[in-house]
Amino acid sequence: MKKVALAAVFAIALSASGCASGASGAREAVPATDALAAGSPGFDMEQEIAYAAMNRWLSNEGAHSVEGFVFPFNLITRVEGPARGTIVLYVDNALEDNLEGILDYVPEDDLHSIAAVMLSAIHADFPDIVTITASTEDRQHTATVFASRPGVIAS
Known about the structure:
The protein is an alpha+beta fold.
């Protein structure tokens, strides 16, 4: 149910902002706000914070969607705020396919980079976000980074 609502919010937010590209299958920026008002049943503050943090990261990079990022960052498919101070980034399972042909490839290395770069990019503006996990959609590979104190990131 939440995925359907999220897709509808994507479409509304993108058409209102003029960012809709019309390209089939394109992953666009996450919505800055949900269609539900704060305090209403179904409103999820942690999810809203996750959306805002993702949008800040995109904005800081001058991107309108993750397609504006380079590999492997452009494989991000969605963002979740499951708990206070935590963000989970989901990455397309294609990450597992070693698209760059690297010997001794470990998907967790790319997932760690994704989580660490996001935390570094948004931590000054979102100091309450202290944990970012990046995971493949099938959850076979994950990496988590933590902010041990403002400006310091630990794995």
